Amino acid sequence: MSDETILCARCSNVVDPASENIWQMKFVAFAGPFDLTLPGNQTIDDIRREIEELHRLLEDVSEREALEAVRSFGLYYFCDRCYREWREDPAGSEYLA
Ligand SMILES: [Zn+2]
Question: What is the mean pLDDT of residues 63-75?
Fold first, then answer.
């Protein structure tokens, strides 16, 4: 096992990539009224134009409205068991009663 201990984001068990599958889950969530381009093969000028456009769009947006336009990113590791459970029921239907 490497020097860095990896914990499963769901069950908190230590995951040893040398002896079991480990799943890296990258989540990117966008919400809000803005239709911006996803990161990809953008140039610096593309990103600059996007930031300028975002500033222009935010000129008339309240702080509250801006907070509600959430973008979140996350990188998680799942053990094999948790990955299989998540894949079968990603929304966690037991919580939707
Ligand atoms: Zn797990």
Answer: 72
